[in-house]
Structure formats: structure tokens, C-alpha cells
């Protein structure tokens, strides 16, 4: 992955959201606590397309219903679980596990998994949480809207993805029964070099490589092709994934079927080798 490309994109998302929050708090004398999807965007997490929270409102939270401020363009939610925050100067921002918990009722299981994985990115610039942060928050907060969804999501959360696209792909595979996926799996090539596979099922030597715009450089494409050939020579099956594969329900189902066929073949080959 091209880290500079991804981090520029992340910074733009954060800056846009920060400006929106600044404009909002300038219209009130109250100290607002930014949460839900707005908090996620401040942490660099894009809002899922199918999220039912309005994108035209800034979402803030209060502990008591009677303390809900009335501000145009602001939706105020009553959040009765613990609201851990950090000080952003003229507003408060809920902590990553809180924002993740808050959006649970408003998005699909797949999207909720992806958001949690994004928070546990391999990239330290993008990483905002660890698995035990989510576990601890759920353990210490027994009642809030969406808690059941959070517990459904928890077993699928996996650290180490490089980008939102990888996190979304991982979430899609997880909810469709593909198990034992390792993000950024390291393989030592025969020439001594190291190669990282975007998503891998290591015990089956099956890898998924997401091809984005950052792979359009001719030199990089030649390097990728060379490394890919070395992996194939070592017995790996590599499936190339593009944005088109994830665009529609039909294309996603076709990709899933391709991966399932590869798993069946690799499983049969593994048994054959073990029994020979």
C-alpha cells in the first residue's frame, strides 16, 4: 500500500470534519460532545453508504435528555453509557470505542466490523484503538442501545489492515463465513526478500491482493508482478481484487464464489499432500 496516498486521503477527511465541527460549535455557547459518525470521521473512518444516520446533521451526545441543546443542523442523542472524551479545544470528542458503540444500531454488521478493523489499522497514523479497548468498554457498560450488535461484531474484529478498502473486504469475507484471515501476512521469498499479502488464509496458502489506483505506476506494477510470480512459485494462490469486485451485490457474490472455489481446491490439495 502507498502509505502517503492513504494518509493524504485520511488527513483530508479529518480536516473537512474538523471544520464542520468548528462551524457548528461557533453557533452555540454550550460545550458540545461530538460523537457517532462525526467522531468516526474525525478519527479517519468514512461513513458507510448504508448508515441510517443523517449525513446532513452533526451528531452530538448528552447524558441526560433534559440537557439536550436545540441547534439547527445538529442532532442530539441521549447516550446513557459512559462517555469517554478527549478535549479538542472548543468541543469534546468521544473516544474511538464509544463512537464505534454509538453507531452500532445504525449500520450493518459488515460495516460495523469494517469500522472496528479500521480503528485497529496496521498504520500507526490511522490506528486509534486496540481490541481490548472495545472489550473493556463493553464489559464496563452493561446497558446502551446497540450493545447486542457490538457483541456480534466483536469476534470478527481483526487488527492489521492497511486501508479502509482492506477492512471492508475483510468484513465482507468474515460475515460470509471465510475464516482464519490474516491481514498483511508476511512471507519470506526464496531470494530472502519479504512480501506482505494484503489478506491471507495462511494454512491454505491463499492470498487476496487489493489492486487500487496506487498500483498504476508502471515500475510498481512490474515489481508487484515479480513478487506475485515468486509467491505462485512457492505454492500460493493469489486472487486479485479490484473496486469493481466490491461494487454491486452480483459482483461481490461472484468474488465470494471465486474465493470459496479456491478454498475448496487448496483444502483438497493440502489433504492430498498430507496423505502422500
| Strand line-up across the major sheet | 6-7-8-9
Binned strand content? 15-25%
Q: What coarse outline follows from CA principal-axis ratios?
A: elongated
Count of individual beta strands:
9
H/E topology pattern:
HEHEEEEHHHHHEEEHEH
**Structural class label:** alpha/beta
Give the number of domains.
2
Q: Tell me the distance between the termini.
A: 39 Å
The helix content, as a percent range, equals 40-55%
Instruction: Describe the sheet with the most strands.
Output: 4 strands, mixed
Mean pLDDT: 91
Radius of gyration: 21 Å
Number of helices: 9
What are the segments in which pLDDT stays under 50 over at least 5 consecutive residues? 1-5
Model description:
The protein has 276 residues and is of the alpha/beta class. The chain has 2 domains: 10-106 and 126-156, no CATH class; 176-275, Endonuclease, Chain A. It has 9 helices and 9 strands. It has helices spanning 3-25, 36-42, 96-102, 109-119, 131-140, 147-153, 164-175, 218-233, 249-275, and strands at residues 33-34, 58-62, 74-78, 85-87, 92-94, 182-188, 194-201, 206-210, 237-241. The strands form 3 sheets. The protein has a 4-stranded mixed beta sheet, sandwiched between helices. A 3-stranded mixed beta sheet has the order 1-5-4. A hairpin with a 4-residue loop joins strand 4 (85-87) and strand 5. Helix 2 (36-42) runs antiparallel to helix 3, helix 4 (109-119) packs across helix 6 (147-153) and helix 4 (109-119) crosses helix 7 (164-175). It is elongated and about 70 Å long. It starts with a helix and ends with a helix. Residues 1-5 have low confidence and may be disordered.
